[in-house]
Structure formats: structure tokens, C-alpha cells
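@channel sequence for tomorrow's demo:
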Amino acid sequence: MSVDSYQREIQRYQQELARLQQDKSREVTQTADANRKANAAASAAAKSSNISTLNSKIRESERYQSDAARHQQKVAQLESKIADIQRRLFDASKRLDNAQQQVDRRNAQLQKQAQQKHEREVSHIVHKLSQHDEMHSLALSAIHKLQQLPSEITVLFLAANPIDQQQLRLDEEVRSISEMIRKSKHRDAVKLESRWAVRPLDVLQAINECQPTIVHFSGHGSDQDEIVFQDSSGNTKMVSKEAIVQTMAAASGDIQLVFFNTCYSRGQAEAIVKYIPAAIGMNTSIGDEAARIFSAQFYSSIGFGLSIKKSFDQAIAALLLEKIPEDSTPELLAAAGLDLNEIRLLNI
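C-alpha cells (generated this afternoon):
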């Protein structure tokens, strides 16, 4: 199966899981309601001195107890189905990871072959220069064209979705970003690297490994200028604005933009541009759909060779086109004296 097929399979399991969880929630509510009514009827029976009323309330209590037991049985059945779907979802996710790794290996091989072809072409031109003076001008022109090919940039996508937080659809966000990059003009010049279930110390490791041009944080943020990472158990671990700023400053050599696709991250973006040319942050909370559409369009525009400011403006326009009323949430900030209308991340 292809990566897209596995992604559709995972989406089906996620939808089925959401439906079962809704059904379970409904049955749990009905169980609690039936137990409450049974207890009320039993209490009324205990207070009644009328034999007829007493018997009636006892029967009513028994009926509600029966209803509660029936709903509880449905809860148990739904929990069994949920566990089965979660197992299938886990297995499908592993198959998707394997398929994506195969695709990545193929793409790496193709990129290597393209680079080798490029080097052979340059070598051929240089060889012609040494043998034929009359071809000197033509060869220089050819070399110039080769050198004008877009230089590759790397986008490092760092995702954290702790199990004790509201679950975000970060996989949909990275899928949308990847799809939009593939559709862009210079798709071969934009490399997307992702890291999942990120712990604080993973950030420097990933930056050192990938040497990114853009660092993209995706997940939860707090109104105290913190980013939510994960600990070794998969639970929440808060990282302060000061720690993130120091981390980016220590690794700022190749980084041109830090993208905080997290709630309440404007303060972090503002602090970052003392060390990094540009940053994007959110001045309040932002929904899953808005975060996905905004980031996907931003990277699409970068892939078409647009400036940082133009790419940001097009991403805002995408929210407006989709009628998502969060177009005032993202903010673009720049280091002092920089005009982001003039700065492109691709050398085209």
C-alpha cells in the first residue's frame, strides 16, 4: 500500500474511534442518570408509609437499576471495541512509518542521483573549457545556470502531544505541509524533517542533526509563555520562554525563521528575533484547522520562492478564503532593521 493509502486507513480508524468514544460517553451518561433515578426511587420508597406507594417505588427503582446495568453492559462492549480500534490504529501507524521510510529512502536515492548528475554536468563543462577556448563563453553561461538552481533548505517540524493534554491532530498538520511542499515549484529544494513526542533535550539533538533553516514547533502552549513538551512517560513537561530563547540563540547559525504554531506564543517569537532574523507566533489560542491551513500555505509559498512576508500574507489569505475567523491570530516578527519583504529563504 502507498503512504496515502495508509494515511486514509488511519483516518478511518480515527473517525471510528471518535464515534465509539462518543457512543461510550452517551452510555456512561445514561448509566449515571439511571442510577440516580434508581436511588431517588429507593429513597422515596424508604420514606413512604403507604404500602402501594412503597411497592410502586421499589419496582421503579428496580426498573432503573436494570436500565443502568444494560447501559453499563453497553459501555463494556464499547470499551472492547475502542481497544480493538486503538490496536488497529497503532498497527496502521507502524505500517505508515515503514512506508514513509521507504519513500524517504527512494527520495534520498533520487536526490543523490540528481546531485551526481549535476556534478557530472559541471565537470563536463569545466573539461570543455580546458579544451576549447571558443566555447569559453558558452560554458561559463552553463555553469552560471547550474549555480542558480535553488539551494536546499530544511524545515524541522517538532511535535509534542502529551497524553494528559487535549489531543491535537498534528499528523494532519505535517501531512498538509508535506503535500503543499510537494505541489510547490521548488519542492526538491525544501526538505521536511519531523520529530515526534519531543522531549526538551530532543530539540538541540534534532537541530544538530538536521541543520534546519526553519524550526517549527507544533503542539500546545500556555498563556505563561511556555511550550508544552513531553516527559519520559508521555506526560506534560513545560519549557519556559527563556529556555527556548537560549536554545535558539545557541543554535542560531543556520536558522533563519522559528515558527511557533502553538497557542499564546507571540512573546516567544518577540524574544527570539533578538537572535534569529524572523519568527511567527500566535497572540492567543489557535484551533487545529486554522493552524494546519495557515502553516501548509506558508510553506507552499516558501516553496514557490516568495519572500517571508509575502508567504505570511498568503497564509493569512488562506484563512480568509476558508472563512476561518482566526486571521488576526498569527503575527510575523523580524529582527531590528530587517525588511522581510526582501528576504527569501530559497536562493532562486
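heads up for whoever presents: The chain has three domains: 3-99, 107-147, 153-334.
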